[in-house]
Design goal:
Length: about 160
């Protein structure tokens, strides 16, 4: 038997009917779905590589679209956070600075992952046939298996706390 009391209490603090919240959830779900579908389609068909004239140009264009979608997602997330109820006990300096620290660690993981992988390594170059010389094992990949995902999650968690 499942105790749903904690979940019911959580939903007391989240307005799931708020339009901004719904748009944020949809944008959060849409982004990885979109880029994975497009990348797998490219891997099977090579249509984007042909349209753009090379796999590198196609990968850079997809990367630009992903970055644009991430900006939209971040905006939607920010707007949703502004309209959600606040936990009164958490509105203090300790929470703000904890959120800032978590955000900083997340940013460190995301930026160092990008620097280790490069643009095509970060933005699905392998689906375009752009392979790295060898597996990246330096920081932050020697700390976490998926530092870009964990870093992004930490950024949004930190942002939420702030």
């Amino acid at each position: 038997q499942v105790d749903v009391a904690a979940m019911a209490q959580l939903f007391g603090y989240v307005d799931v009917t708020d339009t901004g919240f719904i748009v944020a959830v949809l944008s959060i779900a849409f982004n990885p779905l979109f880029w994975n579908v497009v990348a797998r389609w490219e891997h099977k068909t090579r249509v984007l590589s042909r349209v753009f004239g090379s796999p590198h140009a196609a990968c850079y264009c997809l990367g630009a679209v992903i970055l644009l979608l991430n900006c939209v997602r971040s905006h939607c997330f920010t707007e949703a956070m502004k309209s959600q109820p606040k936990l009164e006990g958490w509105v203090c300096h300790w929470t703000y600075y904890s959120g800032l620290a978590i955000l900083a660690v997340g940013t460190l993981f995301v930026i160092s992952s990008f620097l280790a992988l490069g643009f095509t390594g970060t933005f699905l170059g392998d689906y375009f046939g752009i392979l790295m010389e060898e597996k990246v094992t330096s920081f932050p990949f020697n700390i976490l298996d998926n530092p870009m995902y964990w870093g992004s999650t930490a950024i949004y968690l930190g942002w939420s706390l702030m």
